[in-house]
Structures are given as C-alpha cells and as structure tokens.
Design a protein that fits this description.
mainly alpha
Length: 382
C-alpha cells in the first residue's frame, strides 16, 4: 500500500536559508548597518521595492503551480524520447532551458531541466557536467529577453515603467545574437554520437485542473503587473492557489523573497553612505558607456541582482543597465544566482572549472555584442 507524503510545512521553505551563505552575509550586514545607523531602522520598510517583491511572489507561485502539475516533467520526457544523438540532445536541452527561462525565470528553468538531464545521463553516455554548464549559460541568455525571465529584469521593469512589449523589444536583439552564438558553441562542444536511451519509468500524474488554472492566471497576472498593479495580481494568484492547492504555496521559495527584501534594505543603506556615494559618483555613471562597464564589473563581484539594485540608486537608464547586468550573468559563477544553482546541482566537483572555461569567453563575447548594439546600433535610447 502506497501512502501519500504529507505536504511540507510552511516553515520548511525557509530551511534552506540555514545553508545559504548569501542570506547570512545580508543578515549580518543588516545588523552592522543597524548598529551604525539605528535612527534609520524605522525607514527600512520604505527601502524595499514592494511592487517588485509582489511581482516576484506571484511569479514564483505560478511557476511552482506549473511545475507541481507534472506538465513540465511530461514535456521533458516527450522531448527526450525524440533525441537521436548527443548533439541533438544537447541542442534540445539547451534550447528548452533558454525557452523556459523566458517565462518561468532562470532558476525554475534549471530546476526543471537539470533533473531531466541527470535522468537522461543515467541511461546514456551523455556528459552530464558539460550539459549542465551549457544549460546554465542558456538560462542566462534566455531569461534576459522578458521582464519576468529573471529578478534583475523584474526590478528594472518596475523601475522603468516600460510596457512588457517595450522591455522585451529592447532586449530581443541581444538575446537573439547570444542565442545563435550559444547554439553554434553547443553544436561544436557535443558529438554526433547516436543515443540509445530507454526509459521504462511511468510518467508522473498530470494535475490538469492545477495546470489550466495556472495558465489561465498567467495572462491576467502579467497584465496587472504591466499596469503597475503587481500587488493585486499577486493577491489574486495567491488567493486562488490557497483555495485550490495550498501545497503549491507551501513549496514556493519564500526564503528567496526574504533574501530580496534584505538586498533592497542593505544595498540602499550602503548606497546612501557618504563614502560610497562619493566613490561610485567618481565612476561617472551619467555616461552610458561607463554605466555599461560598471554594471558588468559589479555583477562579477556581487552578482547581477544586487548590482542592479545598487546601480539603480545612481542611474535610471534602464536600457543600459538591463544589457549590462544580463551580460554580467556570464563570466565568474557569482555573476548570476542561476550559475550557482546549476553548479550546486552538478554531480562533478570539477563543474566549476568546466563552467569558467566556457563562461568567461562567453562574457567577453557578450560584452562586445551588447556594446555594439547599444552604442553602435544606438539601442541605448535617449
């Protein structure tokens, strides 16, 4: 007799924070800042960009609903069954990772694609580590396209007040070039060795009501967020899920939302320090070319999401910042949280070396492509 495991308790969503070094750095930084400037503690809530947090909450709930429905796992199996060679499998998985990341965020795309990849590698001689590295590169490229593809875009979308179509149209040239280059690199990095995969496991059950509700809510949620009513969109999504499938909300990464709240508070407090303002002001961020270079460099040091929040204190040029911080997701692993997620899921400790062998050259190429589009093709805007 098979028993169904009880749903995870709500507080388990925060359990991963115990091992999250980035969370503890943010928490300790907040304690230090509160000690230095206790008079600002009352203003902490006003430092948080709540529309961005609301939009991210709704998006996490919707993507968790789609994943929990079993639809993505079934789709992955369907794709795997049609892969004939190592190269075709790599191109298919890389393309799927990029496509999913445009709508389901880069981290959710990895949580779907990487387990599928590891399962496929257990029954075929596919190189798991190299595939995961390329999937990390793919979600960085794909998620740059839309405002909901990654957290930094979500923040810049709210900051810019641009429409969904305007934001996506601005990012499309960069993503198109990077995606073509990534597919070419993938084709060269994987062989045409035939695959003889067999998978006798039963597919997961499909929760059709949950899937259809999630898909039906996605459009209205994006429409409300596009109008600047992210809080209402979030409330609608959370309310429906609470009534229909409370277990979906229990699986949402609430700890990630807490990390974002801490990032807003810490980085805005730090950005307000006289010494910091003076130092950053010396970079001349009013010049788009310098803003572009600093955005890429800052992403390599503190990751692209914190870099975006910090730069927004000194510039409102969202077009340049969006290119800079998305390009900055390549290169050193810390450039994007998605890189760290992928590498933690890789089975080989040498994945870090393999990642940098590909990601650093990709950063250099992406930086040149982004610069050309912004300042030669004049996409930087007024």
């Amino acid at each position: 007799m098979t028993t169904t495991a009880p749903p995870a308790p709500w507080w388990s969503a925060f359990a991963a924070l115990k091992q999250d070094r980035f969370f503890w750095v943010l928490a300790l930084a907040l304690v230090a800042l509160a000690t230095l400037q206790p008079q600002k503690i009352a203003s902490y809530p006003s430092l948080v960009d709540w529309p961005t947090v609301a939009a991210l909450t709704g998006l996490l709930a919707l993507t968790q609903a789609v994943e929990s429905s079993g639809a993505l796992a079934r789709l992955g199996r369907w794709l795997v069954a049609r892969m004939s060679t190592e190269r075709v499998a790599a191109l298919g998985l890389v393309s799927a990772a990029a496509l999913l990341s445009t709508l389901l965020t880069n981290d959710v795309a990895l949580f779907v694609i990487v387990p599928l990849t590891l399962g496929l590698c257990r029954i075929t001689p596919l190189p798991a580590t190299r595939l995961i590295v390329f999937e990390a590169l793919a979600v960085n490229a794909g998620s740059a396209l839309t405002p909901v593809g990654n957290p930094q875009n979500l923040f810049l979308w709210q900051l810019s007040k641009a429409s969904f179509a305007e934001f996506t149209g601005h990012m499309a040239p960069l993503v198109a070039v990077l995606f073509v280059l990534l597919l070419a690199l993938t084709a060269m990095a994987f062989r045409s060795t035939p695959l003889n995969a067999t998978n006798r496991e039963d597919p997961p059950a499909l929760d059709r009501p949950l899937l259809w509700v999630a898909l039906a809510l996605y459009g209205p949620f994006l429409w409300l967020t596009d109008r600047g009513d992210a809080a209402w969109g979030c409330a609608a999504v959370v309310g429906v899920m609470l009534l229909l499938r409370p277990r979906v909300l229990a699986r949402v990464d609430w700890g990630l939302l807490l990390v974002f709240v801490l990032m807003f508070i810490d980085l805005r407090l730090i950005a307000g320090l006289d010494a910091v303002r003076s130092a950053i002001g010396s970079f001349g961020l009013a010049e788009p070319q310098k803003l572009y270079a600093v955005g890429i460099a800052a992403s390599q040091l503190v990751s692209n999401v914190p870099a975006t929040i910090a730069l927004a204190e000194y510039s409102r040029d969202w077009r340049v910042m969006a290119y800079a911080v998305n390009v900055g997701g390549f290169g050193i692993a810390v450039g994007s949280l998605a890189n760290l997620i992928a590498l933690r899921m890789a089975p080989d400790a040498r994945a870090w070396l393999s990642f940098h062998l590909y990601a650093v050259p990709c950063l250099l190429v992406a930086a040149v492509v982004g610069y050309g589009l912004l300042f030669v093709a004049h996409l930087a805007g007024p």
